[in-house]
Design goal:
By secondary structure, the chain is of the alpha+beta class. The chain is 59% helix and 11% strand.
Length: 322
C-alpha cells in the first residue's frame, strides 16, 4: 500500500522556496561589479603604461568575473523557472550545476598556472618586481574585500519556508549554497595566488631567488585543484541524486521507527536543492499508522520538503523474524 504524502491534506507545489531571492545572489552581484571595475582599471592602465604585469592581471580578473557571472546567472535562472512544472523537484539543482561548472573552470585555471610555471622554470623572463608587487598587493586587497562580502560562502536556509502547509523547516546552517561556495572559491583562489605571488616577488627582489615565482605558481595550482575537487564531489553528489549523509538518513530512520512496531526496510534521502531534501520510505508494520502521522515524525530541521511513504502490513511474528 503506497501513500504519497504530497496529496491532500499535504498538497503543495514543488517550488520549495526557490523563487525567493537568496542573499548569495546579491553578494555575488556586488563582487562581480567590484571585479569588473578592477579588471577595466588594470587593463586600461596596462595598455596606457605598457605594463604586461597589469595587463595580465586584468585579464586574469576577467576570467574570474566570467566564472562569477555563471553563479549570478544560476541564481536568476533558479528564480525565473522555479514554477516551471518540467522540473520534478524544482530548480534547486541548478545551484549545484553552476557550482560544478565553476569548479571545472577552476581546475582548467590551475592547469594553465602549472603550464605557465613550468615554462618559466626552463625559460625565465625578466620580472619587474616593484610594478608586479603593486599589482599583487592591490589584487589581494580587492579580493580580501570580496571575500568579506561573500561571507565565507556559507548560507543558512533556516529563514525559508518550504513545502507542506504552513510548517516551517529549520534547516541546519552547515549546509552550503554550492553556487555561493563556488564564487567564494574563485575569489579565494585569486587571493591565495596574490599572497603566493607577493612571497615569491619579495624573495626574488631581496634574495635573488627568482625560481620562487614559478614554484609558487605550481603550489598555488595544487591548492586550487584541492579546493576544486571538494566542490566537484559535493556538487556532483547532488546532480547524481546520491544518498544524503548517513547522519541525516539515520535521523529519518530513527524518527519513523520511534512509534509503534514500524521498521524501515528501504530508505532513500537525496538533495533537491541547497539544504533541502526529498525522501522515499518503505516500511513494514503489523499495525501501520496513518501516513500523516509518519510525516509528522520527520524532523523538520532536516529540510525534507517532499516525502513518499509506502507501508506494508505483516504479522507480528513475521515482523519479529525480520
Amino acid at each position: 500500500m503506497m501513500h504519497n504524502l504530497d496529496i491532500p491534506p499535504f498538497c503543495h507545489d514543488h517550488i520549495f522556496g526557490q523563487d525567493e531571492r537568496r542573499p548569495g545572489e546579491t553578494r555575488t552581484l556586488v563582487v562581480i561589479a567590484i571585479t569588473a571595475v578592477m579588471m577595466i582599471l588594470e587593463i586600461a592602465a596596462g595598455l596606457f603604461f605598457g605594463s604586461m604585469a597589469l595587463l595580465a592581471d586584468g585579464l586574469h580578473m576577467g576570467s574570474h568575473a566570467s566564472a562569477l557571472t555563471i553563479s549570478a546567472f544560476a541564481y536568476y535562472y533558479t528564480r525565473r523557472h522555479a514554477q516551471d512544472a518540467r522540473f520534478n523537484f524544482g530548480t534547486g539543482k541548478v545551484n549545484s550545476l553552476a557550482a560544478f561548472a565553476s569548479a571545472v573552470m577552476l581546475v582548467l585555471f590551475a592547469l594553465v598556472m602549472v603550464w605557465e610555471s613550468v615554462q618559466r622554470f626552463f625559460s625565465p623572463v625578466p620580472i619587474g618586481f616593484n610594478q608586479a608587487l603593486v599589482v599583487a598587493i592591490l589584487g589581494l586587497v580587492v579580493n580580501g574585500i570580496c571575500l568579506v562580502i561573500l561571507g565565507g560562502g556559507e548560507h543558512s536556509h533556516g529563514e525559508h519556508e518550504h513545502g507542506h502547509g504552513d510548517e516551517h523547516h529549520d534547516h541546519d546552517p552547515k549546509h552550503k549554497d554550492h553556487n555561493l561556495w563556488s564564487a567564494y572559491l574563485h575569489v579565494a583562489a585569486d587571493a591565495m595566488t596574490s599572497v603566493l605571488a607577493i612571497v615569491a616577488l619579495l624573495g626574488g627582489k631581496y634574495l635573488g631567488q627568482n625560481w620562487l615565482d614559478p614554484f609558487m605558481g605550481i603550489v598555488g595550482a595544487a591548492l586550487v585543484v584541492n579546493w576544486s575537487w571538494s566542490l566537484l564531489r559535493s556538487s556532483a553528489a547532488v546532480l547524481l541524486d546520491m544518498q544524503a549523509p548517513e547522519e541525516i538518513r539515520e535521523e529519518v530512520r530513527k524518527a519513523i521507527e520511534s512509534e509503534g512496531d514500524s521498521r524501515v526496510c528501504d530508505l532513500h534521502v537525496w538533495a533537491v536543492g541547497p539544504g533541502i531534501y526529498a525522501t522515499g520510505i518503505v516500511l513494514v508494520s503489523s499495525r501501520p499508522l496513518d501516513t500523516e502521522h509518519y510525516y509528522k515524525l520527520l524532523p523538520k530541521r532536516l529540510g525534507i520538503v517532499h516525502a513518499t511513504v509506502e507501508t506494508r502490513q505483516c504479522s507480528s511474528a513475521a515482523l519479529n523474524a525480520c
